Amino acid sequence: MIHYHYLDTDNKLKEYISSLHERKIERIAVDLEGEFNLHCYGEHLCLVQIYDGQEYALIDPFKVRINLIRDLMEDLNLRKIMYDCSGDRTLMFRKYGIAINSIEDLLPAAELLDLEKRNLGFVLTHFLGIQPKAKKKFQQYNWMRRPIQREALEYALDDVKYLFDLKIALLKEVAAAGLLEEYEKKNQEAQSREISMKPLPGVFKKNRFKKMPSKSRDLFKQLFDLREGYAEQLDMPPNSVVSNENIFAISQSLMTPGQIRFSGRVPRDISAKLLEEIKTLVRAEKE
């Protein structure tokens, strides 16, 4: 069982940050857990996991001021060991305007070594002989809920537990291959990559969408935007309000709006209103 500090007040987080300075900690291993339109609407930072080489800490962003987390993440003098920083950087910057600084991302090292697989679990096993805890149980875990289960917290800490040792092992191999300079370059690129504030939704990148006639694509976009507004209003994942599959089918005249089966989480009066708006859009497109 891992002993950790659960930082759920401003004072606890301030004390932990002070202890980093007192103990002359120069780098920490960092990972985040977030919500991404799976249980509610939008993207949310739900947990920050830290291992400083001596102690473990979990920051509850629902309970502490985001500016304290900003101070920690933007501290140029505190190195942050991460594995694939792209998603965490994006969430922090897009949602809160926080730019994580001084990152030591280990993924570029794994990429330079041309490993068979690059996911963290495989790399830990390959270099350290460690079998991480099974992810399947927590792949759809609702990190928005409080209290977070102890087992889930320990699972989350597993993502930072071995990063110090992994860094040593990976960079030893990178150095042996004469690729340290290339690693430094790629690590810098990983933490400097521009983050789009309004990314194109993934569904618009699918061949299925791109191959539709322009009229069908136009209707799809209108239905997509309509659903987005209702999902935000209901605080529900958009796909749980009206599925992407239904939007594709309606846009291509493969089903009628009346065939939509709304989730029981959508109040009847709202589903009736939404249905009428969908019918209006479909009629307008046919005229």
TrEMBL record:
Keywords: Exonuclease, Hydrolase, Nuclease
Xref: Pfam families: DNA_pol_A_exo1, HRDC
Database matches in InterPro entries: 3'-5'_exonuclease_dom, HRDC-like_sf, HRDC_dom, HRDC_dom_sf, RNase_D-like, RNaseH-like_sf, RNaseH_sf
GO molecular function: 3'-5' exonuclease activity; nucleic acid binding; nucleotide binding
Domain 3'-5' exonuclease span(s) in chain numbering: 4-175
GO biological process: nucleobase-containing compound metabolic process
PANTHER family, alphabetized: RIBONUCLEASE D (PTHR47649:SF1)
Annotated protein name in UniProt: 3'-5' exonuclease
Species of provenance: Oceanispirochaeta crateris
